[in-house]
Amino acid sequence: MLAFLKGLFTDKKVLLWLGIFAIPVVIAISAVIITYIHFSPELPSLSQLEQINPKLVTNIYDMNGKIAHEYYVERREWTPFDSIPIDAIHAVMATEDRAFFNHWGMNVWAIPSAIMESISSGKKLRGASTLTQQLTKLLFLTPERSISRKIKEAMTAIRIEQTYTKEEILEFYMNEVYLSGGNYGFQAAGRFYFGHSLDSLSIPEYAVLAGMLQRPEAYRPDRHPKASLERRNTVLYAMYDAGYISKEDYHKYVETPITLNQKAEESGSGLYFYEEIRKYMEKKYGENSLYADGVSIYSTIDPEIQAFADSVARVQVEKVRRRVKYRATRRLFLTKKYGMPEDSVVAHFDSIYADFKKNYLANDTNPDLTKRRFPDSIRYHHPEIAAILIENETGAIRAMVGGSDFNNSRWNRAVQSLRQPGSSFKPIVYATAMDNGASPCDSVNDQPVTIPDPDDKNPNKVWRPGNFEHDFEGMMTLRRALYRSKNLPAILTGMKYGLNNVVNYARKFGIVRAPLMAVPSLALGSVGATLMEMTSAYTVFPNGGNRIEPYMIESIVDRNGETIEKNSKVEHEVLRPASAYIMVDMLKDVNIRGTAARVWASGFNHPSGGKTGTTNDYTDCWYIGFTKQYTMGVWVGSDSPGTLGAGHTGTEDALPMWMAVMKELHKNLPRKPFPVPSGVVSRGICNHTGKIAGEFCSEKTYCLYTAGYAPEETCDGNHFEVKTKSADDATLFSNKGASESKSSSNGPKKARKMF
């Protein structure tokens, strides 16, 4: 044998042939080495391969646990390999890579044949890629078809196979592939096209998705149903040919029609709500967390009542706008200027007023506002609307309306606008009094007062506040003063119990955004507050004296299922329970016979309370009210700000939305009363003496007190001496004040003018 080999290697012809055959091998090996050296710097590093972090969808869930809104760059819901149905995997492998579990990242026979086909035909290089190579293109490479890209694709595929298991590669692939419509991965596409999660789809539906891999847009079932059906049947045949389904199943499946998810049109409801969540997430966790990390945000939104509130807001603000447009048309003489009937001007008001501003208002620029031809008081100020709905027990915000059209203006008037609350601030004044020993039956004189201006050093400069109706009713109870929304009694009550004290209570109620000055006008709401602050403040009353911090997010969960944030109930003690109940009892009268008497008259019979508010010159219109279950605030006004005109009050403009939404919200809820806490004392009081009514007192009023502040002396029936004294010296309760707690029939005759 040794002799044979020795002879072989001494034979010159044999050596020549060995040299000839060795040259291609050496050239091939050299080519591989050179190719590797050339392309290696352009390939993903090992650290990149080990840290693949795809961009995922951030889902916002509603209070029922259903997806209500999404934020994403790529709509993708990551699904672990163990949760991917085997039939979905078979549909992919049957058409894309049947030998997936047997190769090491590339099909060495497919690439040369593809290259030869490209050279002979002169066409672009076709696919012929394994799933691993396709994944390489998805993650790291461009979709161009060239020999150099194919080489890099193959080299990277080998690296991926060395880094990950086959199962991990399949998991990446099934979650990374683009399936049109902004959908990445089979889970997102399954929900988008069929309305179900991946594990609930049928084999024909898996075949539809797998068929889209080749040409996602061309085989979209919602846009190209015929092409999608033909491609699906091709995939089904491939599954049969690969042995994944039986012949009988194949014939059954190809006869199955494609049934798509019927997508509801985007209603656009809750957009202000979701925008607040977006701002919160970006501020606290960063933009990448919101758009790429795939966190799940479980919110407090009630989708049904939110959609209803949005629709009511649009209808109500259009009614207000129509009235304001008629007023501006008349005050600015637009019918005469444009030679059109009034109804026609209003119908085309936006374009006409735009022309009016250009040709008239643009030249009306006298720095002395009082000398302008068209003063601000008669110009058109575009009304807007906002609303907040809070669940009292939890503090959860169930609905938020920040304006009439999010796409037109993203300014959220519910949380960003600081406006004067007007008379809706008065309950804070009376709550201060009740928490410091006052009773709803205490008397106050509704008469003209002169108050030195605290902001002016001139002692002769004074403030003479008036009532909305420009009248004075004399002695009345605090209860009547509140439900009639009298200004003078509110000012006197605030001064009696200390304006600094009122400021301190307002802070505890949550009015913290703007400075609060301890001046008499504070009692009339001459402060800056947001609708969110005011609505949250009113939850103190139905919550027995505690204010619960309002919130929009129950919890935030990362892509791995770990909770990274969870809301916990935060309560602030503001009033004693007895004081809060007495305020509830007073505010109920507002809805029965006061400025919001329409609530009771409309048939809304759930126990409720609230307060209207209208600021100077009819600029801001408020109504904030509550039941035992919910508190809701509504604001209507102009962003300018500017007057809406006479008649635009909290009663007229804000209250209707509150009634509509609360009726809808409570239609299936039980009527819940406000329980009387310990510390509330009820006494029958003699109307003449203010003492506890005795056996000889025929005229009496039942009054509420906090324990320790109720009268202790009993009337002996000697009323004659009291009657001879002056009313302001001895009478605690006028007949007008005494009658206010007997019947709701004593309501005002002109409720539309009250605020």
Question: Your description of this structure?
Answer:
This protein is of the alpha+beta class. The chain contains 29 helices and 20 strands. The strands form seven sheets. The protein has a five-stranded mixed β-sheet with strand order 2-1-5-13-14. Helix 6 crosses helix 8, helix 10 crosses helix 11 and helix 19 crosses helix 22. The C terminus is likely disordered.
Shape: elongated
- How is the biggest beta sheet arranged? 5 strands, mixed
**Which structural class fits the helix and strand makeup?**
alpha+beta
Helical content (DSSP H or I, runs of 4+): 40-55%
Low-confidence stretches: 34-39, 123-127, 724-755
Cα radius of gyration in angstroms? 38 Å
Strand content: 5-15%
**Helix count?**
29
CA-to-CA gap between the ends?
A: 119 Å
Mean pLDDT over the residues? 84
Task: Describe what is shown at a glance.
The protein is an alpha+beta fold. A hairpin with a 5-residue loop joins strand 1 (58-61) and strand 2.
Tag the structure with descriptive keywords.
755 residues, alpha+beta, five-stranded antiparallel β-sheet, 20 strands, 12% strand, elongated, disordered C terminus
Please give the structural blueprint.
Layout: H1 2-10, H2 12-39, H3 46-50, E1 58-61, E2 67-71, E3 75-76, H4 86-96, H5 110-121, H6 131-139, H7 147-163, H8 166-176, E4 183-184, H9 186-194, H10 203-211, H11 225-241, H12 247-254, H13 271-285, H14 287-292, E5 296-299, H15 303-331, H16 334-338, H17 342-347, H18 349-359, E6 383-391, E7 397-401, H19 426-434, E8 443-446, E9 451-452, E10 462-463, E11 474-477, H20 478-483, H21 487-497, H22 499-509, H23 531-538, E12 546-548, E13 553-557, E14 563-566, E15 571-573, H24 577-593, H25 598-601, E16 609-614, E17 620-626, E18 630-638, H26 650-666, E19 680-686, E20 700-706, H27 720-723, H28 727-730, H29 735-739
Parallel strand pairs: 1-5, 3-4
Antiparallel strand pairs: 1-2, 5-13, 6-7, 6-18, 8-11, 9-10, 12-15, 13-14, 16-17, 17-18, 19-20
Helix pairs in contact: 4-10, 4-11, 6-7, 6-8, 10-11, 11-12, 15-26, 19-21, 19-22, 19-24
